[in-house]
C-alpha cells in the first residue's frame, strides 16, 4: 500500500519494510537524504528525480577548469553532473545497480534526470570505490551523500 507522510526525510522511520522509495524533485541535499534512507532501510528499489544542486557548487574549484567555473551557469551544470555522479557511485558502492537516465524531454524541464537503483549485490565493489575516490580526489570535495551514509560507507572507502 502507499503511504504519504509529512516529515523531514532523514528523520522518517517506517513502521514496515519499504519496497520502493520514490522522490520527485527533492531539492539540493534532500535527494542525498532520500538516497541515505534508501540504503539504511535496505529498500530494494529507488526512483529519484533530483532537483537543484547547491552543495558541490560551493565546493568545486580547479585551475584546469577555471574557464568553465568562471561562468555561473556552466559551474552550476558541472556541479549538477558531479553531484549526480557521486550519488550514482555511492549507490553502486552500497550494492545497488544504478542508472542515471533522462526521463522526460529537456524541452519540458531542464531537471529531467532520474536516478534508478535496484539492490542487486553486496556493498563494496572495488572498481566503484576506486572511481569514487579518484573523482573526489580530483575535485577536492566531500559530497553530502558521503556524510549522510556515515561510517558504513566511510569504512568501504578505506578498503
Automatic annotation (TrEMBL):
Gene Ontology biological-process entries: methylation
InterPro entries reported for this sequence: Methyltranfer_dom
Lineage of producing organism: Bacteria, Bacillati, Chloroflexota, Chloroflexia, environmental samples
All residue ranges annotated as the Methyltransferase domain in the record: 15-59
Record GO terms (molecular function): methyltransferase activity
Stated name of the protein: SAM-dependent methyltransferase
Keywords: Methyltransferase, Transferase
Any one annotated GO CC term: cytoplasm
Species per Swiss-Prot/TrEMBL record: uncultured Chloroflexia bacterium
Superkingdom field: Bacteria
